[in-house]
Automatic annotation (TrEMBL):
Species of origin: Psylliodes chrysocephalus
Lineage: Eukaryota, Metazoa, Ecdysozoa, Arthropoda, Hexapoda
Molecular function as annotated in GO: odorant binding; olfactory receptor activity
Subcellular location: Cell membrane
InterPro entries tied to this protein: 7tm6_olfct_rcpt
Name under which the protein is recorded: Odorant receptor
Amino acid sequence: DSLRQEFDPDCPLVRGCVFQIWYPFDINKYKWICDTFDIVTVFCGMMLFSYYKTFPFSLIIFLLSQINLLKYSIKHVNKVRNGSSNNLYNDKRDSFKIRECLQMHQHCIKLMHWIQYSLKEIILIQYCSYVLDTAAFMIPTLTEDSLQMKIRCFAGFIMTVIQMYLFFWFANEIREESISLSDIIYNEINWINSNGREKKMLMIMMIRSQQMMSLKAVAIGEMSLHSFTKVCNIDNHLNKLIKVVLIVTGLL
């Protein structure tokens, strides 16, 4: 629908989410300009939403899948080793597979640094967006008189909280899964019977995996489930503050 379309201001489905554009000319005479502006506005909104919402989610899930593939490869090295005989060919094959795992781990770390460098400002924007979105939905839920508006705002609040929880949960999973690699190397691989070269590669991977990978935002820090509780606490204090202001000003 066009941004210039007439709407009923009493309809609870459009209150607060529909706005109109004022044009300094006759819109019937230059309708193509208005339609072009509508298309460009919607396209820019979709691109902005995809950039700071969908794109970080996609990269986080991709990195998490790479870490899980690395864990599977490490466990597969142990199965190959247990089923192999002590000959030169199998020793070379085991060394090659361990080296592949080490290279995969290095690629995961490089990917993590690239995501961190590219998205640290976007993650900060997303963090602030979650705080403002949840507060914006929660305040009308507490102050609106219309039951339909309360239900609509509460549904938006629940969907925002779920989306926020999934974002921080996936970010927390990167932390947990990356540091669990050291336990898998120590417990799943028969490293005691490995040769010196293999032990060095396993030791390098084990020591590096003890330093967890984590997404960080500018001026906030690491993204984890602890950050989710921080956002909820900020929303709680913000709602209390705005409610007090509304009571003092007589608007509530």
